[in-house]
């Protein structure tokens, strides 16, 4: 390959040529809008969030408490059995300290984000969320945390009804 | 099942922005692969293509759009898609066309153009997340890799500087690759550690940025290879693939079980029971430096937590006992997602046929493994090839 082929195809463009329109190009912006139905399990999950509660589904087949809840168990491949409230406390399984936003734009105040496994669900069952009331030096895997909820009148039935997770205080259940 | 061999490969430059259209890129890579196999399009029975999300190129159903460039016009054709896993999976799809006896010669073409998407390909990655559970948090795809890397580092007590060694090795290996976007002969661990922090623990030089490019390979049946007395061939001796749940917040990210299952499937077919001894070199998927380590462990080439130690000891260098990403990998050559077939399957072919030029592993290699990884950190595709 390297030895036998003198030149490899492809014409490189610099960002200047590209953005200053020195290359023949066309521009388009798709206008696509979606309304997603939340389905049976997640609709209930969102309704409970609005009440300030976290809910899971149990599966008697594998004896797991599944969170986020689902109407079928992907392991046993059978319907799940019952609704079960779990707690709004948990453990940081992993996290990142992000200096980029959704579009990869740079931000100065970092976002602390990660996965919390929740007390009352089966091990490792959790959700992604933000962490605050802790510095980037204080956050660590294994840290015990608790949800900070929006006031009831501001909740909309969304994962954002939890504003973030904060460190669990000493003596707090 | 019939025996199948790779008899030709081709690829374009990998660059942040290429002027060429998707069709043109597919044509160039395919023509090179056919020329190197000594075939023309008339010899090709069927065409398989692989490409990652349509949203990058910005053409919905892009597999149909660029099909002419793949030489697919008037032939049985299909596109396969398994996210980043497509880089190796499309070869598996091509393999079953030939192994089953349906086709004697199959052209596999992979393409990716990430540059049309503005302001950055990250904006469309936002749409791969669960729309209800994850998207309200405005996630960036780098986040989940940062979370996986952190989990891996913390559980196995791996230092960032030991992970940075992978980026250094691959960017240096890529110096010998004529298509490389990110080769750097002088890069050091300090350069990686001091590069801008994107989402800790991921710094800019831990990542392979967006890229444009295409690649192609030609697969043929044993009959065709024997009849035509093809000299440059590498046999596909094992294939495996596996998917995990999309509910990534419900599993421990420390070990890629789906890669291990795909590897075991491929090794069984290739009659490999001690991979570390029977495999001479590896091309694991390395869009991030920790992923090479994570995937070496998933491929059972290292014990859990052992890959950083092997790297530190020089085992994975080109002249080491287990050369890993001798192509320069995604970190060194570039990451046009599905088109990375050129540095995974293509590199196995070039190394096993002694055509890798400056990148040629200095000792004899008989068996190599290539692997790709994709979807929401849940997909593994593995191919074992032999000289």
Which tags fit this structure?
heterodimer; A: about 170 residues; mainly beta; five-stranded antiparallel sheet; three-stranded antiparallel sheet; 2 helices; 10 strands; about 10% helix; extended; B: about 375 residues; alpha/beta; nine-stranded mixed sheet; two-stranded antiparallel ribbon; about 20% strand
Short précis:
The complex is a heterodimer of chains A (173) and B (387). Chain A has 2 helices and 10 strands. With 173 residues, chain A is mainly beta.
Give the topology, please.
The complex is a heterodimer of chains A (173) and B (387).
Chain A: H1 15-19, H2 39-50, E1 54-59, E2 64-66, E3 72-73, E4 78-79, E5 82-86, E6 89-100, E7 106-118, E8 126-130, E9 144-149, E10 162-167
Antiparallel strand pairs in A: 1-2, 1-5, 3-4, 6-7, 6-9, 7-8, 9-10
Chain B: E1 4-11, H1 22-37, E2 46-50, H2 54-57, H3 62-65, E3 77-80, H4 86-99, E4 105-113, H5 122-125, H6 141-156, H7 160-173, H8 189-194, E5 197-200, E6 202-203, E7 212-221, H9 222-227, E8 234-243, H10 257-269, H11 275-278, E9 281-283, H12 289-298, H13 307-312, H14 329-332, H15 341-352, E10 367-374, E11 379-386
Parallel strand pairs in B: 2-3, 2-4, 9-10
Antiparallel strand pairs in B: 1-7, 1-8, 4-7, 5-6, 8-11, 10-11
Helix pairs in contact in B: 4-15, 7-12
How much helix, percentage-wise, in residues of chain A? under 10%
User: What is the mean predicted local confidence, pLDDT of chain A?
Assistant: 94
**Radius of gyration of chain A, CA atoms, in whole angstroms:** 23 Å
Total E-strand runs of chain A:
10
